[in-house]
Structure formats: C-alpha cells, structure tokens
Amino acid sequence: MLQTDGEPLTPSDRIIKTVAHTRDVPRTDLPPLYDALDPEAIDDFVTTAEEGSQLQFEYFGTSVSVSVRESGVGIDVTRTGRH
C-alpha cells in the first residue's frame, strides 16, 4: 500500500492520486470519487476479491482499472479524452 506522511493510502485514495497525476490537475480539482463509484465499495473489493479479479469504471475523463494481483493491488489509469 502506498504511504504519504507515514499514513497508508487506501485503494480509493490511490485512484484519486493517480487520476490527478494523469489529468495533471490538483486532487482538489477532481469531483468526488463517489460520483463514479462508492469509494468504500472499491476498498472492500480490494480486500475481499480473489486474485485475478478486476474492476473497471470511468472517472473524470479517465478509464480506471483496479486489479487484485499476487503482488498486490494494481491501479491503471488511462486518459479517455472525455473531460
């Protein structure tokens, strides 16, 4: 799990950080993640899903893919150009 100032980032926090970086905007400029998908549901998915499971959704002009891997959680963000 990524950490910031000693605090671990949840998967939903990592998504926000990655989307902000991909879109080159401050995190505070992003709409609430729950407009796309419930952040708690994302975090629950990561902790309960079997290895190989994947979740995909669109958020703020990006396609977000969350996958549960043997090595940990993978978060891939691709710009879709729709925002």
TrEMBL record:
It comes from the Archaea. It holds the Pfam family HalOD1. Residues 10-67 form the Halobacterial output domain. This is Halobacterial output domain-containing protein.
